[in-house]
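--- STAGE predict ---
source: upstream dedup step, 1 unique chain passed
mode: sequence only
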Amino acid sequence: MNFKFSIVIPCFNEELTVSEVVSNICISFSNDLVVVVDDGSTDNSFKILERLNFSNLHLIRIEKNKGKGHAMRTGLNFVKTKSDVIIFTDADKEILIKDLIKVKEYYLENECIALFGSRFLSIKFRKVIQMGLHRYLANRFLTFVANILFKQKLSDMETAVKSFRLSKFQDLKLQSDGFEIEPELVKEISKSGIKIKEIPISYEPRSNKEGKKISFKDGYLTLKYLINLAR
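--- STAGE serialize ---
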């Protein structure tokens, strides 16, 4: 069966949010394919996912944690011949379902090849404070560097909401296992001369205590990846 859209959700240790997030997406995208890739969770995430009963839900279990990039690539490989458009999002509650619906509607109403949801096109100062000024500035800097290297005009390279038409990118050569997948995906899309469009999305940032995974180390590895490309 061919689906118009596939929503791919990497998941690692999200037992507090994964049931609500995945259930809402399965209901809101009832005619589309929802693929959750559990990246070796050590909590109850996968057990919770197995209890969900939706006909459009497909679960993939990676036995040992290998990183968000590996989970995204696994989901991409599964859906690439099953859908027209892939939408990546996360298993936490930082992204609102209404914004994923906005992405779908944008494809249905416009000519679009690649579309990201940007947290920073309409972000308010209090959200920056919640996110952490250091994270905000690091993100903007990494996005700035990526724009120079890949000739894009993005405001949020590291957004959790990334999407593109699968027919245009059947030969994506993604290799990253970690958060370096963010600039690598932008690089591969940019190779075709495609300009990535953005739409504003809401954002509900959480703290490390609430389960935030990305760290200074991940930012460093992303910057290192970009520096290596620039050489």
